[in-house]
Amino acid sequence: MTEYDASRRNVLYGVAAAGVAVPVLAACGPAGEPDSSKVSTSKSWATYKVSEIPVGGGKIFTDDQVVVTQPTAGVFKAFSAVCTHQGCILSSVASGRIDCGCHGSEFSIVDGHNVQGPNGTAAGSVRALEAFKATATGDVVKVVHS
Predict the structure, then answer these.
(1) Do residues 98 and 84 touch, judged by C-beta distance below 8 A?
(2) Which of 70, 80, 91, 108 is deepest in the core (most CB within 10 A)?
(3) Which sign, positive or negative, has the C-alpha torsion 67, 111, 75, 109?
(4) pLDDT tens readout for residues 19-37
(5) Average pLDDT over the chain, rounded to an integer
């Protein structure tokens, strides 16, 4: 009988092969209370409260796999919250960067480009985050998925 390594990586690979990776990877994001900042969603767009997106930072909406940022006052950007390295859900937004807790990749809150590669590799060593259209009207930011 052969023993198998049940590491997190191997388990995730097996789940991905079974076609159910999205719910499992979503569980890698931060846990907590239900997200009250989301106003509404549809298949192609979602709206979020402007007050939940700090200037110079952002917020990750793990249920929607979206990160919304506000690099400067009144300017909103939105990106996929799925890291382009190995598909982990991004973990935090701080100091002008969107961070992946799995392998340390970091992305710009301005345009989603890779500013630090995984495991300390050079900037640009993984693709930029997929960008979505974000527009603010009143007290909501509407994010349109392409």
Answers:
(1) no
(2) 70
(3) positive
(4) 434 333 333 433 333 444 5
(5) 80
Q: For residue 110, give the 3-state DSSP assignment.
A: coil
From residue 65, alpha-carbon distances to 68, 75, 121, 145 in Å are: 10, 20, 25, 11
In this structure, what is the dihedral angle of CA atoms 20, 22, 23, 27, given to the nearest 10 degrees? 130
- The overall pTM is greater than 0.85: no
Kindly state the tokens that stand for 64. Answer: 């929607």
Burial (CB count within 10 angstroms: exposed 0-12, middle 13-18, buried 19+), residue 89: buried
pLDDT digits (tens, 9 = 90+) for 82-130: 999 999 999 999 999 999 999 999 999 999 999 999 999 999 999 999 9
How many other C-beta atoms are found inside a 10 Å radius of the C-beta of residue 18?
A: 9
Helices (H) and strands (E) in the chain, counts: 2, 11
Q: What is the number of other CB atoms lying within 10 angstroms of the CB of residue 36?
A: 8
Give pLDDT, residue 41: 52
Contact 76, 134 (CB under 8 A): yes
